[in-house]
Amino acid sequence: MNDNIRISAVILASGMSKRMGTTKQLLMFQGVPLLEYTIRKLLFFPFIKIYAIIGHNSNEIMNLIDIKDRRFEWIFNNMYQEGQSAALKKAIMTIEDADGMMVFLADQPLILDETIRQVFNEAAKRMKKQEPKCVVQPSFSGKKGHPVFFSTTLFPFFKMLQGDEGGKRIINHSKNHHIITVSDPGILFDIDTPEDYQILLSKDSSAPFPE
Does the chain have fewer CB atoms within 10 Å around its N or its C terminus? Predict the structure, then answer.
């Protein structure tokens, strides 16, 4: 079904981790840094490119995470202090020859493979139909989360973002917004604070997700 559909993955990882108090991209999870865990998960999917947008402590991140896959690329966001909007703008300036991008957050490691597959396949189906201004987004318990697919026909709208704005404003400009209901609380769970990190580490003991 996905023949000739070209989708890139973008991992937003340039933040300053102020609430965590340390570089959360490098917190250990399953034996590797958190960002590396997310990158390696995406290598199993047919993305044409996988970009990690980094900024704060970028040299340390690149020194500690070594990904040997021709599809993977580090992108440095020198405006990372401006917030998430700068990372998204960097992404759309970098992506070439793609039908769209799936946007991931580096601090959401518990998203299920099946969720990624569902969003990817729905996006591929919509791109085969050449739907303009298309968004595909998962939802759990009535709350929308990541990863979010944006078709390239929406890329020009990213230029209007400012500060810590994310993709919500872009979604308002979509002509075709497809929501997929998933059984995956991981689409809503960000690792922002030391308390969140402890919940992540305790998932093997079935710790509940925070509301």
Answer: C
Other C-beta atoms within 10 Å of 67: how many? 16
| Pick from 96, 82, 15: nearest CA to 52 | 15
Q: How many CB atoms lie within 10 A of CB 71?
A: 15
User: Which is it for strands 7-13 and 100-105: parallel, antiparallel or unpaired?
Assistant: parallel
Q: Tokens 């998960």 belong to which residue? A: 41
Q: How many domains does the chain have?
A: 1
Any domain includes 131: yes
- Rounded to the nearest 10°, the torsion over CA 202, 164, 118, 42 is -70
pTM: 0.92
Tell me the angle at which helices 34-42 and 113-128 cross, rounded to the nearest 10 degrees.
Answer: 50
Q: Assign 27 to helix, strand or coil.
A: coil
Looking at the domain assignment, is residue 211 inside a domain? no
Nearby residues of 197 by Cβ (< 8 Å), 6 or more positions away: 20, 24, 27, 191
Host domain of residue 176: 7-203
Type and span of the H or E element at 181? strand 176-181
The CA-CA-CA angle for residues 14, 87, 187, to 5°, reads 75
Please check whether residue 2 lies inside any domain of the structure: no
pLDDT per residue over 123-164, tens digit each?
Answer: 999 999 999 999 999 999 999 999 999 999 999 999 999 988
SS3 141: coil
Q: Which CATH number is 148's domain given?
A: 3.90.550.10
- Is the Cβ–Cβ distance between 191 and 107 less than 8 Å? yes
